[in-house]
Amino acid sequence: MKIVLPNKVLMIILNLQLHGHEAYAVGGCVRDSILAKKPQDWDITTSAKPAEVKKMFRRTVDTGIEHGTVTVLLGKDSFEVTTYRIDGVYEDSRHPKEVRFTNKLEEDLKRRDFTINAMAYNDEVRLVDAFGGMKDLNHHLIRCVGDPKERFAEDALRILRAVRFSAQLGFSIEPDTEGAIQELAPTLEHVSAERIRVELLKILVSPHPERLRDAYRLGITKIILPEWDEMEGVQQNTPHHKYDVAEHTIHAIKNIKRDKILRLTMLFHDMGKPAMKTTDENGRDHFKGHAIVSEEIANTVMRRLKFDNDTIKKVARLVCYHDYRVEATPENVRRAMNRIGVELFPYYLAVRLADTKAQNVYQKREKVENIIKMRELYQETLVQGHCVTLRDLAVSGKDLLAIGMEPGHELGCMLQELLEWVIDDPDCNKKELLCEYVKEKLGL
């Protein structure tokens, strides 16, 4: 098999070989190349020790030198070059206590997580596949290298990575590997929130986010996202729905583009439903107030998983307003843009559409037509430059102070009152008219 290596990767490998060392591209870049996908990163493994690697290249960074990794900088690109190694005892279900360098490639490959990630390549030897990675690629299988219990005991994050690769590649998890996941899923509690967040996001924005149901079935979400488990099996006996809450959520996630903010919003949008479920005397279910509870859950989970504040703010707001439905009139759309935010409004429309598509046929046409009309009115509002925020108002706080208003709470309330007026009637957004109104109201 021939893999076309980038010129800079070739240069690094050839330089190491010219100095008497072995060197190969390894891991995910080899897997992706075989699958005809463009690798995001190119990693290199070598028999050379870190100090030797540093001598061979002008610009290097000690990114993980205690574990044998040196980053080689070539122009604007960076490449991790790691010495063949054997991992010592893992004491925290995540990191080896120590590593020993070796001069045998196979010893290095056998410590890796899955067979499809344990292949190496260079132009001289071609593909090195000691553990059946090609066979598993052909059979679309995620299989651990060696004993899966040992691999997961070494690094619990591999449990979540198995589901992530399954979601990204559309592969099944091999039965013995799956059994080990189910047994050792509780050890995920030893993994940092940041690492959990990264893998969970990759599952969410993958082509197969439905693999979250596998994570539930294998006991993974019970540890990393127990809020998901609360949604499983919660029926929605209402004309608007045909799935339980968890299955509806999966369909809603799949109905929206692979964007971090949008897919997180769909993950959380109905998480408040189990807590807010009531059933009337006719056996019909209701979930009044679930959007507010879902917003609270979204905030709690994202803070627990150490998301950045901007992501938390945007997702929580979209979750809060995901079920905000009004008649599609110009003034209603302007008011919604004010409440939700001008920049977030297209996201809100996408969220509503994805949610609607995952529901029953009951009133679906009317709901979709409402969303389309709101999108048209949103675009018209932007084109016409109508005022929907205080920033767009023809007067400012300084203007009101200049005509005699005192600074403080009343000034803020007056600005808000003026904004409400021009949202209802955009033609009134004129400085002279607004100032006259304030003067009359205050008797100035």
Please give a structural write-up.
- This protein has 444 residues and is α+β, with helices and mostly antiparallel strands.
- It contains 23 helices and 13 strands.
- It has a seven-stranded mixed β-sheet with strand order 3-4-5-2-1-8-9. Strands 6-7 form a two-stranded antiparallel sheet.
- The protein is elongated and about 90 Å long.
- The model has no long low-confidence stretch (mean pLDDT 95).
Helical content class: 40-55%
Mean pLDDT: 95
Structural class given helices, strands, pairing? alpha+beta
The percent range for strand residues is 5-15%
What's the gist of this structure?
This protein is an alpha+beta fold.
Record the SSE blueprint.
Blueprint: H1 7-18, E1 23-26, H2 28-34, E2 43-46, H3 50-56, E3 60-64, E4 69-74, E5 77-83, E6 85-87, E7 99-101, H4 105-109, E8 120-122, E9 126-128, H5 133-138, E10 141-142, H6 148-154, H7 157-169, E11 172-173, H8 175-184, H9 193-204, H10 212-217, H11 221-224, H12 226-231, H13 245-254, H14 260-268, H15 273-276, E12 278-279, E13 285-286, H16 290-304, H17 309-321, H18 330-340, H19 345-357, H20 364-384, H21 397-402, H22 409-424, H23 431-442
Parallel strand pairs: 2-5, 10-11
Antiparallel strand pairs: 1-2, 1-8, 3-4, 4-5, 6-7, 8-9, 12-13
Helix pairs in contact: 6-8, 7-9, 13-14, 13-19, 14-17, 16-17, 18-20, 19-20
